[in-house]
Write a structure and sequence with these properties.
Layout (H helix, E strand, L loop, with lengths): L11 E7 L6 H15 L3 E7 H8 L6 H15 L7 E4 L5 H12 L2 H6 L1 H9 L8 H4 L1 H10 L5 E4 L4 H18 L12 E4 L27 H9 L20 H9 L2 H12 L5 H27 L2 H29 L5
Parallel strand pairs: 1-2, 2-3, 4-5
Helix pairs in contact: 3-13, 4-8, 4-14, 8-9, 10-13, 11-13
The structure holds tryptophan (TRP) and iron/sulfur cluster.
């Protein structure tokens, strides 16, 4: 699989996040930090996918707009820089929708029914009535998001690989149907830039994920962070302070692997196995490290939060910059498909 480290510079990078809630530390370590790394050397388009949020939350859209604002603050707080990357909200660039419509014409139903996330989510979210056209079409909209900017690379997690594969198939199909024999394909096939699976554990040791209720939000209140970490489970063998434990069986150790240097890690390994340290003691460096990581992010986000006009302006600029590229591609696509201006 393609590794984010070997990407040549000056590529066009596109990625989005569904606006289904505030970001947590798993999203930060898994995705956002990579985006931040990519922004200085590439032409990056990053957007808040509010239409994609609607595909599953259309019955309760009340929170989508708040979630969108929160995610934008998460991004800015964490260090996505609107002067380097183009940041925008998907629904502010209507070209995504028009392109989605056009790609829908040539995408076989069977390709969509085969997508693993479709089958899985439809099963998992049964109560949500997801037998909709929009939900089936989710990856076509995602393809439109990507192909609209002729992206070379799409930083995503493992779960999104099938969507990028589909995007590549749609691009190939489009080029074959409408642009045969062109020197350079009208729609280049993007590569997935697989984000190395985040080592960020949840509070219970499983992967950190909203659906497991084991998250710490990126900008969570410090008191709440401290409380969550202080009460998180440890190796159950350590009933009493004098009982030795095994870090491998403890979710706190997984946090040390993300946050602690080798010296502290050694202190945990030895101290735990010999009952030389207590669990409260052991958690202290983790608590301090998480709080230290979050403090500047929270502060920077706060500044933006106090300047909503600035945020609105930068999103407007982002959408305008995105539309410029999007309109160019769409014009080409419409020509290919026999539509007049
Ligand atoms: N489907 C992606 C997710 O759930 C979000 C997304 C929407 C996206 N459009 C995209 C990711 C385009 C990359 C490129 O995470
Ligand atoms: Fe976990 Fe640390 Fe307690 Fe060992 S000492 S069980 S690693 S919290």
């Amino acid at each position: 699989m393609y590794d984010i480290e070997i990407l040549p510079k000056n590529h066009c990078i596109v990625s989005g996040m569904r606006t289904t809630g505030r970001l947590h530390l798993g999203n930060y370590h898994g995705a956002l930090k990579n985006w931040i790394k990519l922004q200085s050397d590439n032409r990056c388009f990053f957007f808040a996918a509010d239409w994609h949020a609607l595909t599953t939350d259309y019955e309760h859209p009340d929170k989508i707009s708040t979630n969108t604002s929160e995610i934008i603050l998460d991004w800015l707080g964490a260090g996505l820089d609107p002067r380097q990357a183009t940041l925008f909200i998907q629904s502010h660039v209507p070209e995504h929708a028009e392109f989605f419509l056009l790609l829908s014409m040539l995408t076989p139903l069977s390709w969509l029914e085969r997508v693993p996330t479709y089958k899985e989510l439809k099963q998992k979210l049964k109560e949500k009535h997801l037998a909709t056209h929009g939900f089936l079409g989710y990856p076509v909209l995602q393809s439109a998001d990507i192909l609209l900017y002729k992206a070379n690379g799409v930083p995503v997690g493992e779960d999104q690989i099938s969507h990028i594969e589909l995007t590549r198939e749609i691009a190939r199909h489009f080029n074959h149907l409408y642009a045969k024999g062109e020197q350079t394909p009208v729609l280049p096939e993007p590569r997935p830039l697989l984000t190395k699976s985040s080592k960020m554990p949840g509070l219970d040791g499983q992967k950190m994920s909203k659906s497991y209720h084991n998250t710490i939000e990126l900008r969570e209140d410090p008191k709440s962070v401290e409380h969550k970490l202080k009460t998180m489970p440890t190796d159950p063998a350590r009933v009493r302070r004098s009982d030795p434990g095994e870090p491998e069986k403890c979710p706190v150790w997984r946090f040390h692997q993300v946050y602690s240097n080798s010296e502290v890690q050694e202190w945990v390994q030895v101290g735990c196995r010999t009952a030389g340290i207590g669990c409260i003691e052991c958690k202290r460096p983790v608590i301090d490290a998480v709080l230290a990581e979050q403090a500047p992010i929270r502060a920077k986000a706060q500044e933006y939060q106090e300047n909503p006009r600035e945020v609105r302006a930068l999103l407007k600029q982002g959408a305008e910059a995105a539309r410029e590229v999007a309109q160019k591609t769409l014009k080409e696509v419409k020509q290919c498909m026999g539509l007049s201006e």
